[in-house]
Design a protein that fits this description.
The protein has helices at about 1-10, 40-45, 125, 135-140, 255-260, and strands spanning about 55-65, 70-80, 85-90, 95-100, 105-110, 115-120, 155, 160-165, 170-175, 180-185, 195-205, 210-220, 225-235, 250-255. It has about 260 residues and is mainly beta. The protein has a 14-stranded mixed beta sheet with strand order 7-8-9-10-11-12-13-1-2-3-4-5-6-14. Strand 3 (about 85-90) and strand 4 form a beta hairpin. Pfam families: DUF4292 (PF14125).
Length: about 260
């Protein structure tokens, strides 16, 4: 059960050329800083996402929990508003699992134990898994986060914008030199921190900056996940989704995976 849990945790994150571009220095601050409105900031954050329709990537993944530390290699093939396939390996040429996410379903093929788990994106058991059910998994895996529409309180220091919702349950830290979120925090109504994203090691893909390193924390679970993209290619001409579990495998509900010892 622990191995399957760790494999599924890869899809929390989230992410050219064959080896990926070089890391870039931080550009200069825009002339209008620090006087951008919340609407202007949100527009700049959303703009690059509209140009990305598909991507492929290879990455290293480290998962730390109270039970220990695991290291995995993952391969991602994704088409926006369609399907996202993640292949997970602990090494030694072993492919332990394949995870397929569609707009309305989630399927996990546990190739080690020959099990196939299936569920919808909205069912309660899937929500209990470390999946970006409430987010766009395509953008999450690229490290692209931005505030939803609505009112956001904006403050600034010497180099960053800070956006916070009226309930003080969400906080975004924005780098205006790249127009990317570099940190996201989510709190409970009582002010307890429950989720943190950090985005680092930015590279430039044409006019778009994307993080090569994604750091995710769930303090309530004692879980920390670090993902580093070795390669990342945007809008590749051809995508191959290889999803071929044995047709004789019976589909199990995700609740059954949660109940595994």
């Amino acid at each position: 059960m622990r191995l399957v849990f760790l494999l599924v945790s890869a899809v929390l994150f989230l992410s050219g050329c064959a080896r990926g571009p070089r890391l870039t220095e931080r550009p200069a601050l825009p002339d209008q800083f620090p006087y951008h409105s919340a609407e202007q900031i949100c527009y700049q954050l959303r703009l690059p996402a509209d140009t990305i329709h598909a991507f492929t990537g290879r990455a290293r993944l480290q998962v730390r929990t109270p039970a220990g530390t695991d290291n995995l290699s993952i391969t991602i093939v994704a088409r926006r508003n369609d399907s996202l396939l993640i292949r997970l390996s602990p090494g030694w040429g072993i492919e332990a699992a394949r995870l397929l996410i569609t707009p309305d379903s989630v399927l996990l093929h546990d190739r080690v134990h020959h099990r196939l788990y299936a569920g919808t994106r909205t069912e309660q058991a899937v929500r209990h898994l470390p999946l970006p059910a409430g987010r766009d998994p395509f953008l999450s895996l690229l490290g692209i986060l931005y505030p939803s529409s609505g009112f956001w309180h904006v403050t600034a220091d010497s180099g960053y914008y800070y956006l916070q919702d009226p309930s003080r349950q969400q906080r975004y830290i924005v780098d205006p030199t790249r127009w990317r979120v570099v940190r996201y925090e989510r709190y409970t109504p009582t002010g307890i921190l429950v989720e943190v994203y950090r985005f680092e090691a930015f590279s430039r893909f044409g006019s778009i900056f994307l993080p090569r390193r994604i750091h995710f924390e769930r303090p309530d679970l004692g879980m920390t996940v670090r993902l580093y993209y070795r390669t990342l290619q945007l809008n590749p001409p051809n995508l191959q989704f290889v999803w071929n579990p044995d047709a004789r495998l019976r589909r199990l509900p995700f609740q059954a995976m949660l109940e595994q010892p």
